Amino acid sequence: ANLVSVIAGYEFTHGEWTELSQFIMQCCQSEDPGQREIGMLVMTSVMESATLQLQSQFTQLLGLFSSALDDTGSKMVPFYALQCLTSMVEYISDDETELFRQMIPKAMIATKRLIITDEDKACEA
Q1: What is the three-class DSSP state of 62?
Q2: Mean of the per-residue pLDDT values for the chain?
Q3: Which helix (H) or strand (E) holds 18?
Q4: Are the C-beta atoms of 124 and 113 separated by less than 8 Å?
Q5: Contact (CB, 8 A) for 124 and 75
């Protein structure tokens, strides 16, 4: 995931590698919890290294993260969503502020669920 994120940072800067975005979205929307975890793990890594390059997609990504926070089939999917939100918070524009604000209650619920299943992950998120 880390190697992919480094390459993605470079490629996204040049407007390339749309296949990665499609792959991540397919994984994140899969019925299989393992696939969703892989997609969100890659997304977390990409968000940490290429947040600015993804800024034009924040509205779409906020929708993805909102769904991920509601995922009860996997404890890791909401964890990764929380990490993604943390990576993007300082880059949120006025246009996305309200969408981001609406996710705070979901983030709190996801954190509470995570505390019950894995307190260390909850602290890390």
Answers
A1: helix
A2: 86
A3: helix 18-28
A4: no
A5: no
| Tokens 């307190």 found at | 119
Any idea which residue has 């990490």 for tokens?
83
Question: What pTM was computed for the model?
Answer: 0.86
Q: Residue range 2-18: average pLDDT? A: 63
Sequence letter at residue 75: K
> How many CB atoms sit inside 10 A of residue 55's CB?
14
Secondary structure (H, E, C), 24-35: HHHHHCCCCHHH
Contact 43, 55 (CB under 8 A): no
CA–CA gap between residue 73 and residue 34 (Å, rounded): 9
